[in-house]
Design goal:
Blueprint: H1 2-19, H2 39-51, H3 55-68, H4 75-89, H5 92-108, H6 114-128, H7 138-153, H8 160-188, H9 191-204, H10 211-224, H11 230-243, H12 250-259, H13 269-281, H14 287-292, E1 327-330, H15 335-340, E2 346-352, E3 355-358
Antiparallel strand pairs: 1-2, 2-3
Helix pairs in contact: 2-3, 3-4, 4-5, 5-6, 6-7, 7-8, 8-9, 9-10, 10-11, 11-12
């Protein structure tokens, strides 16, 4: 009797397996069952797979949509979603593929609003690959170029404010690398090694958190170079007092100016306002960050979090005029702006020697 019951139970289970397709889960069914399947359905299914991290399956569906419906209104979205799938999956090889896909999207759909998003992702790939200032700066250089490209080509994009802040952080890392090398040569007394790096840093990265220290070292090297370079030293010390009036090197700069019998300039009102405002936004590295910072590959960019001056947008050489200056104007805060704008509702307008340059970078 017991064996008979077991036999009936086995037969019942066999019937259930046959009825349910041998126990196959729904997502294991064929991706495309008909060539006439609507493109929207394909796209929706791919999005569902992306949300569930089924990246390979999502790419197969998206590629089917692209090949089967070349005139579909979902074509651009599908190509962007393919790039997103590589980006979300992560890993060195996948991010390389994602960058190539994003660049293809920008090439084929340069006028779509999503092209700014694609450019932002390209820049973020290199931003996330940045290493500490004393290591390889390849990703930092590439990130600088890609963020600059986004800001210059699409300044009205909703991604532009975030790109500006990320660019400040990238340039903080690049400037820190120059500063560390220059300071090493300065301590060793080898001014020919320190001066060109300090000069590049001062001209190209005026928003660097230790720009006043760079100016001070530059002034000292000028003094050490002989009497003929004293005017250059005076100019560097004066720049500290004028442009970085709340910095740590102001008192030392005034002492050197007094020792050189040079007049002490008045601090710039714009510089005082800028540094006062930046002090309210400044962030310091947490204790845990200091402890584990030596074990991480990425750099510490907290020093750039509170900066508000325009990042350098020139590909090479000195920064554009007015990069250090900012005019404060009240702006109505909106949910969209507060989520992307690191300036918390304060509008920063670029200022040049001839006047206001407007919103254009």
């Amino acid at each position: 009797m017991l064996s008979l019951k077991r036999g009936w139970l086995l037969l019942l289970l066999t019937g259930l397996l046959v009825a349910t397709g041998c126990g196959r889960r729904p997502y294991e069914t064929p991706i495309v069952t008909s060539s006439l399947q609507p493109d929207k359905e394909l796209f929706d299914r791919a999005v569902d797979d992306l949300e569930e991290s089924r990246f390979t399956r999502a790419r197969l569906i998206l590629q089917t949509l692209i090949n089967t419906y070349p005139d579909s209104e979902y074509l651009s979205k599908a190509k962007l979603a393919v790039a997103d799938s590589w980006y979300q999956e992560g890993g060195t090889s996948n991010l390389t593929q994602a960058e190539a896909e994003y660049r293809d999207f920008i090439t084929f759909f340069p006028t779509l609003p999503e092209s700014a998003e694609a450019q932002m992702r390209v820049a973020m790939i290199h931003y996330q690959g940045m290493e500490k200032p004393d290591r390889d700066v390849t990703h930092a250089r590439r990130a600088e170029q890609e963020f600059q490209k986004l800001i210059l080509s699409q300044p009205d994009s909703p991604f532009a404010p975030l790109a500006e802040q990320r660019l400040r952080e990238v340039q903080e890392v690049l400037a820190q690398g120059l500063f560390d090398i220059a300071r090493f040569y300065f301590i060793q007394g080898y001014d020919p090694g320190a001066q060109p790096r300090l000069k590049e840093l001062i001209e190209r990265y005026p928003n660097f958190s230790q720009a006043d220290s760079a100016l001070y070292l530059m002034g000292r090297t000028a003094e050490r170079s002989g009497e003929k370079n004293i005017p250059q030293a005076v100019e560097h010390y004066s720049s500290i007092v004028r442009d970085y009036p709340l910095g740590a090197r102001v008192d030392e700069a005034k002492q050197r100016l007094t020792a050189l019998s040079a007049p002490i300039p008045e601090p710039s009102a714009d510089a005082v306002a800028r540094m006062t405002y930046e002090s309210t936004l400044a962030q310091s590295q947490s204790m845990m960050g200091k402890i584990f910072g030596g074990f991480t590959r990425g750099p510490d960019v907290t020093a750039a979090k509170g900066k508000i001056g325009m990042p350098t947008l020139t590909a090479q050489g000195a920064a554009q005029p007015g990069a250090l200056s900012a005019v404060f104007q009240p702006q109505r805060s909106t949910p969209a702006a507060s989520s992307t704008n690191p300036n918390n509702g304060v509008f920063l307008e670029q200022v040049t020697e001839s006047g206001t340059a407007g919103n254009s970078p």
